[in-house]
Amino acid sequence: YPLSSIPDYYMMDELLSDEHKLIRQSVRDWVESFVMPQIDKAAQEHRDIPNLMKELGSIGALGPYIPEEYGGAGLDQISYGLIMQELERGDSAVRSAASVQSSLVMFPINEFGSEEQKRKYLPKLAAGDMIGSFGLTEPNHGSDPGSMETTIKDMGDHFLLNGAKMWITNAPLCDIAVVWAKNEAGKVRGVIVERGMEGFTTPETTDKWSLRASKTGELVFDNVKIPKDNLLPGVEGLKGPLSCLNSARYGISWGVIGAAIDCYCTAVQYAKERKQFGKPIASFQLQQKKLAEYLTEITKAQLLCLQLGKLKNDHKASPAQISMAKRNNVRMAIDIARESRQILGGMGIMGEFPMMRHAANLESVITYEGTHDIHLLITGLDITGINAF
Ligand code: TGC
Ligand code: FAD
Question: Does the C-beta of 100 come closer than 6 Å to ligand 2?
Answer without folding.
Answer: yes
